[in-house]
């Protein structure tokens, strides 16, 4: 994130004395990526940010996976994972259930009405897509407001907590990277500004409000961090509240972007998924399909052509509207389709021809394409529709 912001009380010159009204020094913290060689911000704390008084092991949610073998397209029904009686006791951090994952990206889902503990994911950035409901996300930089359709982008090691609000639970689809996420490079000028032909711009990105300046002692933070055999968890207790920041500036901070602010790119003939891209990470991309006018060539076929994604697994989360290409398959809001590399996929029977003459589509979907195969997590295995693989043929195995 290369867009500079400055919030709260910051000294005119970096790395110089900065004091409160009583003359007490603030403690400057640089939060930076790639070892002082990439984006960073400077935060000014009232207390020493490294003062811990206890450290214990913490077991994060189950991250075990099994291969997609034998290879099949799959349909996962996420809305079946969290019955209503679980909402009040589930938080976004400890309650998330792993749907799919590999070493570079993990996709989880959670339905939550409970405040989360303070949390810091030190293994990578998180993009949390709000399917429905609302929340305040308190962070060391200040608060973000998260509403239906928002992507909440939380840089690695941002201490934060989720506070669902309103009369509906928060439904969140969590895309957790190993490493960092950013707008696609082709959307950016060589100095990092979003270009005129990008489908969104800086004005669509919403950063934190004023610093929270919270007080407190012996404050616990759950930390997901690098371990010898993959990610591990620790519970650190800080002497003073980590949200004691009085001001910060820089180019590294959490922000929100609404899917409804994505301006779709359309054409005379079918536009491929990269036209709908919103973020990229190491080993994966995120695209979104939003309501839009469709192809206007006189002989166009608006439904997608059948396609073999030779080098990727394609994961679609259907989060609103009406997805005509999947009609008859059982897929609806809250569904995830898994279309793996090694298998051609496309519209369900009838949808290809049926799309001819359509002027617009009302679909809303978030897609993650990975370049390494994804495996199924316990959440994905728990909500699979076993008949989906045979939905194009209309019948399953003759045995
Ligand atoms: Fe596809």
Short description, anyone?
With 399 residues, this protein is an all-beta fold.
Secondary structure elements and pairings:
Layout: E1 5-8, E2 27-32, E3 40-45, E4 52-57, E5 65-66, E6 74-77, E7 97-101, E8 105-112, E9 118-121, E10 126-132, E11 134-139, E12 142-146, E13 150-154, E14 160-165, E15 170-177, E16 205-206, E17 217-225, E18 232-240, E19 245-250, E20 255-258, E21 277-281, E22 284-289, E23 292-293, E24 313-320, E25 335-339, H1 351-354, E26 360-361, E27 364-370, E28 375-377, H2 378-382, E29 384-385
Parallel strand pairs: 9-17
Antiparallel strand pairs: 1-19, 2-3, 3-19, 4-18, 5-28, 6-25, 6-29, 7-8, 7-28, 8-15, 10-13, 10-15, 11-12, 11-14, 13-20, 16-20, 17-18, 21-22, 22-27, 23-26, 24-25, 24-27
This protein binds fe (ii) ion (FE2).
Fe (ii) ion binds at residues 307, 314, 339, 345.
């Amino acid at each position: 994130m290369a867009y500079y912001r400055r919030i709260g009380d910051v000294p005119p010159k970096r790395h110089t004395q900065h004091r409160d009204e009583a003359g007490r020094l603030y403690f400057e913290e640089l939060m930076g990526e790639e070892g002082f060689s990439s984006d960073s911000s400077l935060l000014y704390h009232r207390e020493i940010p490294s003062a811990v008084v206890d450290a214990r092991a913490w077991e994060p949610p189950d991250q075990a996976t099994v291969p997609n073998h034998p290879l099949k397209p799959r349909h996962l029904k996420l809305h079946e994972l969290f019955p209503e009686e679980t909402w009040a006791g589930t938080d976004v951090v400890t309650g998330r259930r792993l749907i799919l994952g590999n070493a570079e990206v993990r996709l989880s889902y959670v339905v939550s009405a409970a405040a989360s503990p303070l949390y810091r994911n030190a293994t990578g950035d998180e993009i949390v897509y709000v399917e429905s409901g609302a929340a305040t996300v308190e962070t060391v930089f200040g608060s973000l407001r998260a509403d239906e359709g928002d992507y909440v982008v939380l840089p690695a090691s941002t201490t934060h907590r989720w506070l669902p609000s309103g009369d509906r639970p928060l439904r969140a689809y969590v895309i957790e990277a190993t490493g960092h996420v950013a707008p696609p490079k082709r959307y950016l000028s060589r100095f990092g500004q979003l270009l005129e032909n990008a489908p969104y711009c800086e004005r669509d990105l919403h950063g934190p409000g004023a610093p929270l300046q919270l007080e407190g002692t012996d404050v616990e933070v759950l930390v997901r961090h690098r371990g010898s055999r993959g990610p591990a968890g620790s519970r650190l207790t800080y002497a003073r509240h980590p949200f004691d920041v009085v001001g910060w500036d820089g180019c590294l901070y959490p922000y929100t972007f609404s899917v409804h602010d994505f301006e779709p790119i359309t054409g005379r003939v079918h536009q491929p998924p990269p036209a709908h891209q919103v973020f990229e990470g190491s080993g994966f991309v995120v695209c979104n399909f939003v309501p839009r006018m469709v192809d206007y060539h006189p002989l166009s076929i608006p439904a997608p052509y059948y396609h073999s994604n030779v080098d990727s697994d394609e994961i679609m989360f259907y989060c609103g509207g009406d997805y005509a290409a999947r009609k008859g398959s059982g897929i609806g809001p809250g569904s995830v389709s898994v279309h793996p590399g090694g298998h051609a996929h496309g519209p369900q029977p009838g949808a290809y021809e049926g799309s001819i003459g359509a002027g617009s589509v009302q679909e809303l979907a978030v897609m993650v394409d990975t370049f390494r195969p994804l495996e199924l997590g316990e959440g994905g295995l728990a909500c699979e529709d076993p008949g989906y693989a045979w939905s194009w043929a209309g019948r399953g195995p003759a045995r």
